[in-house]
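re: that chain from earlier
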Amino acid sequence: MKQVNVYQPFLFSSFQHSHSLTLSDLKWKAFEKHDFLGDGEDWALVIENMLSEKNPELLEKLTFGDDPQMFSIKSADKDALHEIAEMVCVFYEDDVLLDDCIKRYAQYE
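^ sequence. v structure.
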């Protein structure tokens, strides 16, 4: 029986007490409409700004990856990563919601 990925759209991995989420489909075209590359740094910007507004305590539990070709987040707190996945799942497959999130959260200070 195939196991459901509760971390969709991310791939989840775990080693000892370190867990990570990786997003391989970065939806570049959605970001390009707003003059962003849509790389790992742009995704980190969206997630970081979204969390700053909605759940700043969660940010303290996360480490963002530094590979621009993909987006990844690491944490010792598996539940924190699950919360991120649930948050992203709401807008990831919906082009209108994704566009709204990029407009609102892909902002450099």
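The first helix runs from residue 28 to 32.
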